[in-house]
Write a structure and sequence with these properties.
This protein has 290 residues and is mostly beta strands. The chain has 2 domains: 124 residues, no CATH class; 157 residues, no CATH class.
Length: 290
């Protein structure tokens, strides 16, 4: 008998959802050079395969060739990661104000990313005179997420992080994003159907009530955005399921699973491809259960 799963009683969903195809990204050398200039430094652009890289020895810019995404880092603190770190906390309001200034300049046009969380960049320093390491804070990480049409963008490929150091300067940041274009509407499957597909997924294959327990604590509807190095033809509508799976070998395994929220075989992106064309994972990434 298949494994029984405890699901939440109520989930916010909608009967139809807007579809967003992904525009191809083309970075020219001049675009990368100009972005580095806006970030405050200059250097030669190197093609590293998945990235274009600019490095002047003090700052680095990595531009992801597959998407309009980039990562910036400052290295002028040297090899000592504790340099400039302070004891106690930093002013979160000040850090958010600095981060908002950066986001105002570098967020994708037409978007309004929201603050998702603020976390400390912690450094532990061991000293001979003390038994416990000394805790220092090297910066505050201000994290942002996006939504489209009131629906959250999920996964690793749609977010911004800005790191603000104790001096109130931006020491690092990244912007992960894809350029969406409207591609019609699709009817969503029922939550019960999503649960049935999850129960039959590879995660639970071969498990029974005698050998395991599974509980889904949170379910939400959203668009899955893949890591910025990976091509993607559609921001796939999914149900994101978060929960805990317990087995004899793994007493507590926290999982995040994605189930397609629409029938992907019916999708037509309007670019001459057949409905449901899944070449290169353009519609259904490998981590999505359909």
């Amino acid at each position: 008998m298949a494994l029984s799963v405890d699901f939440p009683a109520a989930v916010d969903t909608r009967s139809e959802i807007a579809l967003f195809a992904v525009r191809p990204t083309r970075w020219e050398t001049g675009d990368v050079t100009e972005l580095a200039r806006r970030l405050g430094f200059v250097g030669e652009v190197a093609d590293r395969g998945l990235w274009h890289v600019v490095d002047d020895g003090r700052s680095t810019l990595e531009v992801y060739q597959a998407t309009p995404s980039f990562r910036y880092g400052r290295r002028d603190t040297g090899e000592n990661e504790a340099a400039g770190a302070v004891e106690g906390g930093l002013d979160a309001d000040q850090a958010r104000a600095v981060a908002e200034g950066w986001v105002g300049r570098f967020a994708p046009a037409g978007t309004r990313p929201d603050v998702h969380s603020v976390s400390e960049l912690e450094v532990l320093v061991s000293e001979r005179t003390t038994a416990q390491p000394r805790r220092l804070v090297a910066g505050l990480q201000v994290n942002y997420r996006f939504d489209l049409d009131g629906v959250a963008l999920l996964g690793p490929g749609a977010k911004i992080q800005v790191v603000v150091d104790p001096a109130g300067e931006v020491s690092g940041a990244y912007r992960f994003w894809r350029d969406p274009r409207p591609a019609g509407q699709a009817r969503t499957i029922s939550v019960d159907e999503a649960y049935s597909r999850f129960a039959a997924s590879d995660l639970l294959a071969g498990l029974t009530d005698d050998t395991a327990r599974a509980q889904v604590d949170e379910v939400r509807l959203g668009y899955l955005s893949l890591p910025p190095t990976e091509p993607q033809g559609l921001l796939t509508p999914v149900f994101e399921l978060r929960g805990v799976l317990s087995t004899e070998l793994h007493p507590r395994h926290e999982f995040v699973s994605y189930v397609a929220a629409i029938n992907l075989n019916d999708v037509d992106l309007g670019d001459g491809a057949a409905k449901g064309d899944n070449r290169w994972g353009r519609l259904r990434p490998s981590l999505v259960t359909a």
